[in-house]
């Protein structure tokens, strides 16, 4: 009888040891998985909060300037916008976490001004003031060709 009890105790000791090993393996594996999931979440692409971008936007006069800059600045995430009448360059500073260049260009096209890749709809273009019709040759000539980029005088 004593021999039987010893075998039972030996089996229960082996079972207890196997359970402890199994628990350790599960614990280590769980920590391993948690580490990977935390690491993958921290590798998100950092977006620039002060991205400086320059694009060309069609326009012809001071009213165009105000309309273009206002459309850009009303876009959530745009911190700065200035458009040059002579060069037609719009310089903006955006928070890439809040907006994209495409969104800014869409908003500018919505008020009637073309930019690379975005042509204003006829309805939007026709809503601008008659002196701002930058697509018409007569208007361009009236504004001394300001729509075309002018070369610097040497």
Provide a quick synopsis of the model.
This protein is mostly helical and 154 residues long. It has five helices and three strands.
Descriptive terms for the model:
single chain, 154 residues, mainly alpha, Alpha-Beta Plaits, 5 helices, rod-shaped, disordered C terminus
**With helices defined by DSSP (H or I, 4 residues minimum), what is the helix count?**
5
- The proportion of strand residues reads 5-15%
Give the CA-based shape. rod-shaped
Helix content: 40-55%
Largest sheet: 3 strands, antiparallel
CATH topology of the largest domain: Alpha-Beta Plaits
| Count of strand segments | 3
Provide the gyration radius in Å: 33 Å
Q: How many domains would you count in the coordinates?
A: 2
Describe this structure in words.
The chain has 154 residues and is mainly alpha-helical. It has 2 domains: 1-44; 51-142, Alpha-Beta Plaits (2-Layer Sandwich). It contains 5 helices and 3 strands, in the order αβαββααα. It has helices at residues 2-42, 62-73, 101-110, 122-126, 137-142, and strands at residues 51-56, 78-83, 89-94. It has a 3-stranded antiparallel β-sheet with strand order 1-3-2, with helices on one face. Strand 2 and strand 3 (89-94) form a beta hairpin. The longest helix is centred in the first third of the chain and has 41 residues, at 2-42. The chain starts with a helix and ends in a 12-residue tail after the last helix. The model is unreliable at 146-154 (pLDDT under 50).
